[in-house]
Amino acid sequence: MATTDYAPAPETAPAATKAPALRDRLAPPVRGRVLFGWLGPLLVTVFAGVLRFHRLGNPHAVVFDETYYAKDSLSLLKFGWERNTVEGADKMLLADRHADIWAEGASFIAHPPGGKWMIAIGEAIFGATPFGWRFMPALAGTLAVLILCRVARRMTGSTLLGCAAGLLLAADGLAFVTSRTALLDVFVMFWVLAGFACLVVDRDRSRQLLADRIEAGNASPYGPFLLHGWRIVAGLCLGMGLATKWTAVFYIAAFGLLVVAWDYGARRAAGVQAPFAGMLRLEAIPAFGQLVVIAGVTYVASWWGWIFRPGGWGRGEAAGNVLARPFEALPKLWDYHVEILNFHTGLDAKHPYQSWPWDWPILRRPVAFYYNEPDSCGAARCSREILGVGTPALWWGALLALVVTAIVWIVLRDWRGGAILVGFAAGWLSWFPSALSERTMFLFYATPLLPFMCLAVVLTFGYLMGPGAVRDPLRPGAVPAPTPRRLVGAAAAGAFVLVVLVNFAYFYPVLSAEVLPYDVWHARMWLDSWI
């Protein structure tokens, strides 16, 4: 089946139009100046950063699962592995960041140490305070906006649409809350998005190189061998995602299949005589090494503290020869992983805030990360909450956009639609088997889906604006003249982004623990299931 790399194409090309070079057909250049291509995304990132770092230390409390990760991260700094803490350790830390909270023995953990090492960086710089353990989540959430702006710009060819994608992520309630609490899901989102961005860059650059080699006279029926250097970086990023939570393994598998499809499509579009055999011989095995092997090595390396320092759960004494420690530790690390897997497969305890994957897109049951009723708002009853809920306008709009994206992929065979759906499905459908076994899960597990939802929205608006609004292989350097359809589409896109921003501003007080009169708080509980 033939594949269309970019769509929509112009309805009618002038007869005198010169056919674009192979390089431009395989990887159409992004329009616009480099300065504006960075300036716009950086301004959006500054906006996201101000939102995330403003009042980051408030509330001065241990919020939801920060009770695990803030202390585990501090333990990694001190011991290299997670250690037990005394009763009342949370209150002790809030009163004195230098408090001695450590009990005897190692603590059993549910997740690998990669994300906790990141939280530990903030604690090392700013101390064991709410600001300290939330610093790196806020930084990761902010940088994710920059990455999304740039990858959306590269995929659509439009700086405007790239900035729109970043604004949507910046103004999503769930992305905002998870960026301001010391949990792990924002790091999964960051590393998965970074890995995806590297693969998109690699797709463009490898296609340009493929075209150059073929036009230079490569005579092999399989086409030339390509190095795909950006895939190595992608493997490192996805390995860090795996080292944060095991759920990243589904992204590694999905993206691995995706790049194989891209490689085959590139060789076929370039006119290689045996594109499938060329992909298998020259690219499939290196891709496995670049993504799977490098991700695996990165994952194991994240356990370095447990490997090289004695005392961790199940680690026991370490060999006197430091060089021998990895070899004698790996069998014990395997046993530890079996225990962790058994813990997760048996995790079926009921929780008042649990929800199922099919509930997530409609925001049926969010998590109250923090709630109390202070006496400081001048009303008879006051509320103060951090509600882990997405911005409804974005989430409910993204449902329609994902349907459009599926149509774009199936009918128009646009690679971007497929890439977005693969990223979304890897983080959503992978939870369904666990949900059927009634494993405990929460809405914030959907955090890694957010970039792909934003990409679906901007791709939809790109199609709404019509031919020339996105990268076009038949007229790669053309800047289309404004048309009524393009103007209407741009106005609709701008209106949607504005609605999302207003909707986020409306919910901001219940996302950031502002003190509100109870009636004002209750008005923001749009569904009874949010309480």
Concise overview:
The protein is built from 20 helices and five strands. The chain has about 525 residues and is mainly alpha-helical.
Description:
The structure is a single chain. This protein has 531 residues and is mostly helical. The chain has one domain. It has 20 helices and 5 strands. Strands 3-4-5 form a 3-stranded antiparallel beta sheet. Helix 2 runs antiparallel to helix 6 (130-156). The relative contact order is 0.14. Residues 1-17 have low confidence and may be disordered.
Task: Tell me the domain tally.
Answer: 1
Strand segment tally: 5
Question: How many whole angstroms does the radius of gyration measure?
Answer: 25 Å
Helical coverage, percent range: 55-70%
Average pLDDT metric:
90
Order of the strands making up the biggest sheet? 3-4-5
Structural class: mainly alpha
Strand proportion, as a percent range, falls in under 5%
* DSSP helical segment count: 20
Please write out the topology:
Elements: H1 22-26, H2 34-53, H3 66-79, E1 83-85, H4 89-95, E2 102-106, H5 114-126, H6 130-156, H7 159-170, H8 173-178, H9 185-215, H10 229-242, H11 248-269, H12 275-301, H13 304-308, H14 325-345, E3 367-372, E4 382-388, H15 392-412, H16 415-428, H17 432-436, H18 450-465, H19 484-511, E5 515-517, H20 518-523
Antiparallel strand pairs: 1-2, 3-4, 4-5
Helix pairs in contact: 2-6, 2-7, 3-5, 5-6, 6-7, 6-9, 7-18, 9-10, 9-11, 10-11, 10-12, 11-12, 11-16, 15-16, 15-18, 16-18, 18-19
